[in-house]
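Pipeline run #58 for the internal structure catalog. This entry was flagged by the ingest filter as a single-chain record with no existing model, so it goes straight to prediction. Upstream metadata was stripped on purpose; only the residue string is passed forward. Reviewer on rotation: M.T. Logging verbosity set to normal.
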Amino acid sequence: MTAPDGTYIGVPDAWFAEVGLAWEIDSYEFHFQRDDYADTISRNARYAAAGIVVLQTLPSRLRTEPANVARELTAAYEAAKSRAVPRKAG
């Protein structure tokens, strides 16, 4: 995904373009090391700078708390929908 000016933002695990919501499934395996964690923080800063709402979810919660995750995703979608959508990122 890039900003309108061509700046790289990130590649979300799911993208809801109609409301500007990115869903990231962030595991310890890929985000635990110092450099990986720093990359995650930088990615989230790029999302924020672009006006994108981000929901982060641990993959283990998809298995252990699917109903709660679904509620959080729905709530994040509704929150994102209640504001102006950022200019097209893609």
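catalog note: The mean pLDDT is 88.
catalog note: The first helix runs from residue 28 to 31.
status: ready for reviewer M.T.
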